[in-house]
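Retro notes (design track)

What went well: tokenization of the new backbones is finally stable.
What didn't: we kept losing track of which sequence belonged to which structure.
Fix going forward: every design gets posted as structure first, then sequence, in one message. First example under the new rule, 199 residues:
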């Protein structure tokens, strides 16, 4: 971040040009036969530290149980597009009102290897100090991570899932480990923050 805190409008003006338009992101090729939209909610605290909101998915869920993720999900019949799905799911999962989100643009879509999803991430600015309302059915916990903390916790680590071990990009904050598609989304976000001079 810069030495003095940026206002929400200044942050939007700096970051938006480094993001993909929703139309351009939708045209990018990505593996995965099932499309999902996720919201990457960003906010700047009073001290200027940029933070992102994530959820830990419920342990009882069929897919990606217990993993850290961004709020989101599959397209419903009433959704206009994948960004609408992301906003709707964020409202359902963490109580974030869609009208309180300023959508700035999109990140590159990424696949989930095991579950065959094409995940389309959308970056939205929100106000700090939100009172989260957790969906007890889908969300085990809600986390606000400072970008600097996530960056500091980067490492290539060995993950074991379904009896298979592999080395992958991860971000560790305390005992909270981000990996997989969510880690790839973070990597793309960080590169665009750097390009915007917001690292």
């Amino acid at each position: 971040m810069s030495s003095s805190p940026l206002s929400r409008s200044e942050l939007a003006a700096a970051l938006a040009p480094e993001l993909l338009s929703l139309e351009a992101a939708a045209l990018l090729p990505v593996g995965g036969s099932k499309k999902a939209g996720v919201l990457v909610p960003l906010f700047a605290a009073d001290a200027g530290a940029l933070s992102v909101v994530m959820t830990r998915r419920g342990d009882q869920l069929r897919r990606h149980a217990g993993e850290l993720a961004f709020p989101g999900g599959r397209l419903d019949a009433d959704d206009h597009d994948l960004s609408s799905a992301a906003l709707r799911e964020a409202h359902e999962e963490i109580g974030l009102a869609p009208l309180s989100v300023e959508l700035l643009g999109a990140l590159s879509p990424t696949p989930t290897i095991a579950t065959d999803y094409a995940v389309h991430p959308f970056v939205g600015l929100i106000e700090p100090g939100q009172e989260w309302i957790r969906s007890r059915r889908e969300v085990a916990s809600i986390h606000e991570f400072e970008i600097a903390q996530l960056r500091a916790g980067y490492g290539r680590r060995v993950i074991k899932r379904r009896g298979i071990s592999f080395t992958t990009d991860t971000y560790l904050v305390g005992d909270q480990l981000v990996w997989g598609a969510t880690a790839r989304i973070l990597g793309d976000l960080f590169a665009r923050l750097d390009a915007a001079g917001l690292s």
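Added context from the reviewer: The first strand starts at residue 34 and ends at 44.
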